[in-house]
Design brief:
antiport, sodium transport, potassium, mainly alpha, 536 residues, 2 strands, two-stranded antiparallel sheet, transmembrane, ion transport, single chain
C-alpha cells in the first residue's frame, strides 16, 4: 500500500512527465547535432590538410561552445540532466568499444616484434611516470608551491594523469606517413598505458581506503593480481571464442546473422566478467580484442569479417567522437575550483618531467638490450614523448576521484586534470604536425632515410613487415628477426607452430592473414583511437 502511495504522484503528474520527455528530446537532438557537426568539420579539416585544428580538438571545442551557451541560458537545468558526464556511462558504454577496437586493429607483426619495448614503455614507464608525478606533487605541497595533498592522493593523481591519448599524433602518422616501428611503439604504448593507469589508480584507491594494513609489497601484489587476472580473463574469453567459431560450423550463409551476433557479444562478456570478478574490464577487453582479431577473426566467413570490421569501426568512431564532445560540454557546465592555479601550473610542469623520465629512461633500457640495428633513435623517443597528450581516460578518472576523495581534494584534482586535458588537446595537439615534421619522423621525405627493416604507414592503411620480400632490406629484416628470436623465447614461432593451428584453420600461415587484412583495409579505413582517419 505504501509503495502505491509513493509512486502515485508520478503517475498523476502528466505535465511533469511531458516536460521530462521534452527535455530528453532536446538533449538527444543536441547530441546528434553536435556529432554531425563534428564529423562534417573533421572531414573538411582532413580534406584541406589543416593540422592546426585536429578533429579531436574540434570536437572538444564544439562541446565547450555548446556547453558554454547552455550554461548561460535558461535551459541549463533541463539539458544538464541529459548531458552530464557520468563516469559509469563512460566506463560501461563508451570506453569498451574504443578499447576493444584498439586491440582489434593491432597489426600483429610490428606489435609483437616491438613487444618488449611496448611493454617496457607502457608498464614500467607508466609506473615510473605515475610515481614521479605523485612524488613531485607531494614535495611541491610540502614546499608550499602548490595545494598540499596527502601522499596516497598525490599518487592517485599521478596514476590518473599518466593515462595518455595520442589520437592526434597517430592520425597525423596516418595522413603523412611514418616509420611502422614508431607507429607500433606509440600505438601499443597508448593501448596498454590506459589499462596500466586504471589498474594503478584502483590500487592506490584501495590503499587509501585500507591504509592501516597495507605495505608497499602488498600494493605491488594487489596490482599484479588485478592486471594479470584481467589479462588472463580477456585472453581466456578470446581463445574460447576462437574455438567456438572454429568448430561450431557457423560460417555458412544462412547462419551469418548468428555468427555476427555472437562475435559482437563476446567482447562485452569479457568486460563484464572481469568487472564481476573485481578485476579491470578495460584490461580484459583489450586482450580479448587482440586475441579475437588474431585467432577468432580468421574463423569467420568473408561476409562476417567485413561486417564485424565495419561494425566495430563505426561504434568506436561514434563513441570516441562523442567522448570528446561529451567532455567539452561537461567541462563548460561543471563547477571548477580555480582557486589553486599554482597546483595546475606545477602539475603541468611535473607531468612533462615525468613523461620525459618515462620515455627517455625506458628508451635507454630498451636500447641497452637491443642490437645496434634495432635501437630506438632519439628522434623517435622525442616523438613518443611529445605524443603523451591527456584525454578522456584521465578526465573520467579525475571525475571519479571527486567521489573517491574528500570534497576539496577531489575538486582540485578534477580542475587540474580538466585544464591539462584542454591544454594538451587544443594547444599541443595543434602543434603536433609541425613538431613531427621538425623531427623528420613523418612525411614523404622520411621514406628515403629508412634503414633496413623499416616500412611506412601511408595515408590509406598501415603496412606490415614483409618477411617474404626478396629485396636486400627484406633479407636484412629477416636476419634481424632471427636474431631477435634467438635472443628471447619467440612468441612468433610458438604462435605459428602451435597456437594458430590449434585455434584457427590457417595452419600458421601469416601471409594469408595479411592478405585478408589488406583486402579489408582497402574497403574500410584503418581506424581507432590511434588508427583513426576520422580523428584528427
Amino acid at each position: 500500500m505504501s509503495s502505491e502511495l509513493q509512486i502515485s504522484p508520478a503517475i498523476h503528474d502528466p505535465q511533469g512527465q511531458e516536460k521530462q520527455q521534452q527535455a530528453a528530446g532536446v538533449g538527444i537532438l543536441l547530441q546528434i547535432m553536435m556529432l554531425v557537426l563534428s564529423f562534417v568539420l573533421g572531414h573538411v579539416l582532413r580534406r584541406h590538410k589543416f593540422y592546426y585544428l585536429p578533429e579531436a580538438s574540434a570536437s572538444l571545442l564544439i562541446g565547450l561552445i555548446v556547453g558554454g551557451l547552455a550554461n548561460i541560458s535558461n535551459t541549463e537545468t533541463s539539458i544538464r540532466t541529459w548531458f552530464n558526464f557520468h563516469d559509469e556511462f563512460f566506463f560501461l558504454f563508451l570506453l569498451p568499444p574504443i578499447i576493444f577496437q584498439s586491440g582489434f586493429s593491432l597489426q600483429p607483426k610490428p606489435f609483437f616484434s616491438n613487444f618488449g619495448a611496448i611493454v617496457t614503455f607502457s608498464v614500467l614507464g607508466t609506473f615510473v611516470a605515475s610515481m614521479v608525478t605523485g612524488l613531485l606533487v607531494y614535495l611541491g605541497g610540502l614546499m608550499f608551491l602548490m595545494y598540499r595533498l596527502p601522499l596516497v592522493e598525490c599518487l592517485m593523481f599521478g596514476s590518473l594523469i599518466s593515462a595518455t591519448d595520442p589520437v592526434t599524433v597517430l592520425s597525423i602518422f596516418q595522413e603523412l606517413g611514418s616509420d611502422v616501428n614508431l607507429y607500433a611503439l606509440v600505438f601499443g604504448e597508448s593501448v596498454l598505458n590506459d589499462a596500466m593507469a586504471i589498474s594503478l589508480y584502483r590500487t592506490m584507491s584501495l590503499v587509501r581506503s585500507h591504509s592501516s594494513g597495507q605495505n608497499f609489497f602488498m600494493v605491488i601484489v594487489r596490482f599484479l593480481e588485478t592486471f594479470v587476472g584481467s589479462m588472463s580473463a580477456g585472453v581466456g574469453v578470446g581463445f574460447t571464442s576462437a574455438l567456438l567459431f572454429k568448430y561450431a560450423g557457423l560460417d555458412v550463409d544462412n547462419l551469418q546473422n548468428l555468427e555476427c551476433c555472437l562475435f559482437v557479444l563476446f567482447p562485452y562478456f569479457s568486460y563484464m566478467l572481469a568487472e564481476g570478478l573485481s578485476l579491470s574490464g578495460i584490461v580484459s577487453i583489450l586482450f580479448t580484442g587482440i586475441v579475437m582479431k588474431h585467432y577468432t577473426y580468421s574463423n569467420l566467413s568473408a561476409n562476417s569479417q567485413r561486417f564485424v570490421s565495419a561494425f566495430f569501426h563505426l561504434i568506436s568512431s561514434l563513441a570516441e567522437t562523442f567522448v570528446f564532445i561529451y567532455m567539452g560540454f561537461d567541462i563548460a557546465m561543471e563547477k571548477h575550483s580555480w582557486s589553486h592555479l599554482g597546483f595546475i601550473f606545477f602539475s603541468i610542469l611535473f607531468i612533462v618531467i615525468a613523461r620525459a623520465a618515462n620515455v627517455f629512461g625506458c628508451g635507454y633500457l630498451v636500447n641497452l638490450a637491443r642490437p645496434a640495428h634495432r635501437k630506438i633513435p632519439m628522434t623517435h623517443q622525442k616523438a613518443l614523448w611529445y605524443s603523451g597528450l591527456r584525454g578522456a581516460m584521465a578526465f573520467a578518472l579525475a571525475l571519479q576521484s571527486v567521489h573517491d576523495l574528500p570534497e576539496g581534494h577531489g575538486q582540485t584534482i578534477f580542475t587540474a586534470t580538466t585544464a591539462i586535458v584542454v591544454l594538451t588537446v587544443l594547444l599541443i595537439g595543434g602543434s603536433t604536425g609541425t613538431m613531427l615534421e621538425a623531427l623528420e619522423v613523418v612525411g614523404d621525405s622520411h621514406d628515403t632515410s629508412l634503414g633496413d627493416g623499416f616500412e611506412v604507414v601511408n595515408s590509406r592503411y598501415m603496412t606490415s613487415y614483409d618477411d617474404d620480400e626478396d629485396t636486400p632490406s627484406g633479407s636484412g629484416f629477416r636476419t634481424k628477426l632471427r636474431e631477435f628470436h634467438k635472443s628471447a623465447a619467440s612468441f612468433t614461432e610458438l604462435d605459428k607452430n602451435y597456437l594458430t593451428p590449434f585455434f584457427t584453420s590457417n595452419n600458421g600461415d601469416y601471409d594469408d592473414e595479411d592478405n585478408i587484412e589488406q583486402h579489408h583495409e582497402e574497403r574500410i579505413p584503418f581506424t581507432r583511437r590511434g588508427n583513426l582517419n576520422n580523428r584528427g
